[in-house]
Amino acid sequence: MVFDVCIVYWQDYDTGGLHASEIYARTLTYRRQYPNLFQRGVAFVAGGYLGNRLMVNQAHLDPQSYYLDGMEKPPEEHLISIPIFFREKVLGVFQVARMRGDFFTNEEYELVQLFVSQANIALHNALLYLELKEHADEIEKQRLQRAP
Predict the structure, then answer these.
(1) Structural contact between residues 25 and 31, judged by C-beta atoms closer than 8 angstroms
(2) What is the pLDDT of residue 88?
(3) How far is CA 142 from CA 32, 128, 129, 137, in A?
(4) Between vectors from CA 55 to CA 51 and to CA 58, what angle results, nearest 5°?
(5) What is the CATH number of the domain that holds 42?
(6) What is the extent of the structural domain holding 42?
(7) pTM of structure
């Protein structure tokens, strides 16, 4: 699968929005062309933030696509946005984009969904482990406070 940009957005609880935290640009041209935009995300499909999985070819024509104020909308940008969940709450969004060229296919969309599903399982396990550890630490703290 060929894509130009891959972005992982995480929920920013301070601002109530999403923050582009992991960004991969396939070519040096894209890294140079959009240095500031890559810090905040090139484009964002709002449906991913709302918990919907989306594939949008020609995102500039789609009403669910959001672009930063003042950003020139790439005429051939194609996006796949898949939400990342924990207990039915959106923690973030995984997105791949093609800045030009062929539309994303259903097969590519399914491949991205499969990848995010596997990553989601790993994230769930890590978060559950942290919850369990916090609970065990609290029990140990209470036990030590009651010990003679």
Answers:
(1) yes
(2) 78
(3) 55, 21, 20, 9
(4) 130
(5) 3.30.450.40
(6) 5-146
(7) 0.71
Contact 84, 66 (CB under 8 A): no
Judged by DSSP in three states, 41 sits in: coil
Give me the tens of pLDDT residue by residue for the chain, a chain 148 residues long.
788 878 787 777 776 666 667 777 777 666 554 444 434 444 455 555 555 668 878 877 777 666 555 556 666 778 888 888 888 787 888 888 887 788 999 999 999 999 999 988 998 899 899 999 999 999 999 988 887 7
DSSP at 64: T
Identify the three-state secondary structure at position 76: coil
Alpha-carbon distance of 37 to 43, in angstroms, equals: 9
In angstroms, the Cα distances linking 5 to 19, 37, 41, 42, 121 are 15, 11, 10, 9, 23
Query: What's the number of domains the chain is made of?
Result: 1
What pLDDT is attached to residue 138? 93
Q: Is 77 left (phi over 0), alpha (psi -120 to 50) or beta?
A: beta
Say how far apart CA 113 and CA 117 lie, in whole Å: 6
Per the structure block, which two tokens stand in for 36? 């500031």
